[in-house]
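queue> pop job 88
queue> type: inverse folding (structure -> sequence)
queue> payload:
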């Protein structure tokens, strides 16, 4: 589970991680930025018109978040494939939409499962007034989970997809 398929140094693994991370940020941040700005504009326009947010009136914002997440997942899969191909890992020549969605969903699921380990300690640190320490803990564990859990799972999935393509 922790292997990317061939023996790698930590530096090589960090290169793959960085290649994967900046591609995810390059695509994900603008999508979420547009969604956040449009949500703020919509909310302010509703407040200015005298409508106060209730659960039923904020339903369009929930729909927007779900739509943005649904749009981000397959794009995340395509970007992960690109990062692995650039570093010489086996991957299919092309990804179908279903495969890209599965790859993106797997990355998000393993990342979430791995970082849930730090929720309680980080929350406890924040309660005791150590917010900076909690942020550092979350960041370090997030990088470690990405390096040793998420990337190997994505490499395995891409290897399997490249075998079925042949």
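queue> result:
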């Amino acid at each position: 589970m922790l292997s990317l398929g061939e023996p790698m140094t930590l530096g090589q693994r960090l290169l793959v991680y960085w290649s994967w991370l900046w591609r995810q940020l390059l695509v994900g941040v603008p999508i979420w930025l547009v969604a956040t700005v449009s949500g703020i504009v919509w909310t302010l326009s509703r407040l200015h018109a005298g409508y106060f947010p209730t659960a039923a009136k904020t339903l369009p914002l929930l729909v927007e978040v779900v739509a943005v997440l649904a749009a981000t997942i397959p794009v995340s899969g395509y970007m992960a494939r690109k990062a692995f191909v650039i570093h010489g890992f086996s991957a299919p020549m092309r990804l179908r939409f279903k495969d890209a969605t599965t790859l993106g969903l797997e990355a998000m699921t393993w990342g979430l499962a791995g970082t849930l380990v730090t929720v309680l300690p980080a929350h406890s640190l924040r309660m005791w007034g150590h917010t900076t320490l909690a942020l550092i803990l979350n960041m370090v564990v997030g990088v470690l989970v990405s390096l040793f859990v998420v990337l190997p799972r994505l490499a395995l999935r891409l290897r399997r997809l490249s075998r079925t393509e042949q």
